[in-house]
Amino acid sequence: MKRRAVLFPALCLLVSACSLRAADPVYVGASYGLYKSTDAGATWNMLNIPLNSTFLKGSLLPHWLTMDPQNPSKIYMIGEAEGTAFFASADAGATWTIMPFIGMQPGGPGGANLSVDFAGQTIYISASSTTTGGNFALYKSTNTGASWTLIPLPNNQDAPLSQYPFGAPVESFFVDPTVSGTVYGLSNGYHFVKSTDFGSTWTEIVQINDDLFKSTDGAVTFTKLNIPSNSVTSVSVGAVSTTVYATGGVAGLGGTVLKSTDGGDTWTALQNGLFSESGVVWADPADASMVYVNDSTFTGSFYVSTDGGATFNKSEIPQGPPGCVPGNCQGQEIYALLIAVPAATTPPPPPSIFDNGVVNGASFQPGIVPNSWVSIGGTNLASSTDNWANAIVDGNFPITLDGVSVMIGGKPAYINFISPGQINLVAPDVGFGSLPVTVTSPGGTSPTFMVSSNQYGPAFFQWPDNQPIATRLNYTDAVKNGTFPGVSTVPAKPGETIVLWGTGFGPTNPIAPPGAPVPGGKTYSTTTLPKVTIDKVPATVYGAALAAGFAGLYQVAIQVPDSIPDGDWPILATIGGVESPSSVVLTVHQ
């Protein structure tokens, strides 16, 4: 697996926000292992990474390196040692967790093939698999590489759905360095797309060619840069956002490093002829004086500048392989470099829950029911908006979503939806009484909120105008016509059997497994049959049970009384002596 030197040349100038601070340490992935320097490249020490697996043997070749933007001690790497694996360290490289890739081959035609979201909870790679027919696609992990979820890029005229059912192949991708959830992708050479929800949805921004462009507004607009190079192979933004370095070939000068101090408007060639046209440059994002350059054509050609590119001195990576006899050792090629500097940002404020901010997820009234839906309102609850669509792993609902988690009564809740002002979740199997609730986000943990947990809290989910979500046995909607613009619907009829959808109807027999979709094949009926009235007239209740394939979602099957006239009538459910809200109305029409 050989990496191309190209590092997103047309896209690397999207955004930069850096402050001046020391760059320490620096990691390089070389031909025979991972090395670390704590003196800006003057000396290097090889990190001990035991390959304790029959899948991994021999020397380790690190191909890509990255880190958690919020914690530079959390280092991630894709490495090869006969087999290929994902490596994770939480202690700056002292110890490692190793997870071999099974059925996947990381890589891609571009260079940015391993990145971490700004909040530090989501890791992205590009990889091929049998699912993608050997084409490279974008994958993400929310559990530190234990499992990976395919993120389809949108199809286009060059990659139609009929030929690419997994989505357009990814050529390169780039994670926004300051905005959580935002990721950019390049497919088919020039289709540039953007997602602001961790890859759930995409928008094509622009079609680009092989020139160098920059954007200073989050990829809304682009400006072509007149760089005097016929083959830009890498771009890196320095500690000062207007300082940009590039490598490539310049007519009459050969391979060189170029520097701009005005955001790419004008360029100066540095060290003409010292490097080949396939060199790679890394500017320190925190120290304006530090620049690293590798000539990927020749082994042992790795240079460091401590004066902003004015001069470059060779940095000696120890020759390999480890333990080689002097005279038989070889210079090492550099495949990856990481400058472990935390994101220069003000930490987000801690979350806070509103007064009466923990409510039933259907009625939005105070109080919760174990294993049922809950909604939390507040401020700074999350730094982005996301849902669990791509975070359900092996059939288990997530207890953390983009760094956001909720504890109820000392147990983690199952997070369905997050936004700065609202969290939707399924409550864990907790007890009854007054229970503590806390929200934890990248900004910290909220003050404790006390909520009343009860065995029952029946409530129907609602359509507009306080109408209960109701369907017929064939799943057509039983709702007033005109409720949904452009859609014709038929309300419930007297004598008709309908199914009401709600939450908070209490325990079931058998008990459904927590934190996972309700299995099919058996009925998880409520231990007590609820009563339902329409305009105070009792309805026949055929049964109440959890809906298969969902969580905390109850189906209550009833027959609308024959005596109910046409009109909008209050509908109430009672179970365990607790009534659902009286504000819900069912439209009945003969």
Please summarize what this structure is:
The chain is mostly beta strands and 590 residues long. The protein is 0% helix and 40% strand.
What does this structure look like?
This protein is mostly beta strands and 590 residues long. It has 3 domains: 26-339, 7 Propeller (Methylamine Dehydrogenase, Chain H), CATH 2.130.10.10; 352-453, Sandwich (Immunoglobulin-like), CATH 2.60.40.10; 459-588, Immunoglobulin-like, CATH 2.60.40. Strands 38, 41, 42, 45, 46, 47, 48, 49 and 50 form a 9-stranded antiparallel sheet that branches. Strands 8, 9, 10, 11 and 12 form a 5-stranded antiparallel sheet that branches. Strands 28-29-34-33-30 form a 5-stranded antiparallel sheet, with no helix packed on it. The N and C termini lie far apart (69 Å). Mean pLDDT is 87; it is low at 1-23.
Helix-strand blueprint:
Elements: E1 26-30, E2 33-37, E3 45-46, E4 61-68, E5 71-81, E6 83-89, E7 97-100, E8 104-106, E9 114-116, E10 123-129, E11 136-141, E12 149-151, E13 172-175, E14 183-187, E15 191-195, E16 203-207, E17 213-214, E18 223-224, E19 231-237, E20 244-250, E21 254-260, E22 268-270, E23 279-283, E24 291-295, E25 302-305, E26 313-314, E27 334-339, E28 352-360, E29 373-379, E30 386-387, E31 405-408, E32 411-412, E33 414-418, E34 422-426, E35 433-441, E36 444-445, E37 449-453, E38 459-460, E39 462-463, E40 467-468, E41 470-471, E42 497-503, E43 508-509, E44 525-526, E45 531-534, E46 537-546, E47 554-559, E48 567-575, E49 578-579, E50 585-588
Antiparallel strand pairs: 1-2, 1-27, 2-3, 4-5, 5-6, 6-7, 8-10, 9-10, 10-11, 11-12, 13-14, 14-15, 15-16, 17-18, 19-20, 20-21, 21-22, 23-24, 24-25, 25-26, 28-29, 29-34, 30-33, 31-32, 31-35, 33-34, 35-36, 35-37, 38-42, 39-40, 41-42, 42-47, 43-44, 45-46, 45-48, 46-47, 48-49, 48-50
